[in-house]
Write a structure and sequence with these properties.
This protein is α+β, with helices and mostly antiparallel strands. 29% of the residues lie in helices and 32% in strands. It folds into two domains: 75 residues, no CATH class; 34 residues, no CATH class.
Length: 117
């Protein structure tokens, strides 16, 4: 949760009227964010929005937004950008399921060929 004042400071926009998720990816992650000020809409990427608010506070782009009074409520799931290898999943696969590195790579990157060079 962010106060409207703090949100405006982090985004560099005064008198913010509304903040919404404008577009989503196929995996339902936020793709772009619409910032409305005095009826004028500005768009930034969800990654830029996350970066400006702080990746330690907005942990992934799998979120929803609601401006309620003077508070922005962000409800989300997951960590990171949603592409590539999940470090925590790989750790669990290796430590608890005894999956070797080749199996982990094949799981996260199907069709990958591992070769010695």
């Amino acid at each position: 949760m962010f106060s409207k004042k703090d949100l405006e400071k982090k985004l560099g926009i005064n008198e913010l009227d509304n903040v919404t998720v404008k577009a989503r990816t196929e995996s339902k992650r936020a793709k772009s964010i619409e910032l409305t000020r005095r009826g004028v809409e500005n768009e930034i990427t969800a990654e830029e929005f996350r970066k400006r608010l702080g990746p330690e506070k907005v942990k992934s782009t799998l979120f929803g937004l609601k401006l309620k009074g003077d508070q922005l409520i962000i409800k989300g799931h997951g960590y990171g950008h949603g592409v590539g290898l999940c470090q925590w999943c790989a750790k669990i696969m290796a430590e608890k399921q005894s999956v070797k590195y080749r199996g982990i790579i094949r799981y996260f990157f199907p069709g990958t060929n591992i070769k010695t060079i």
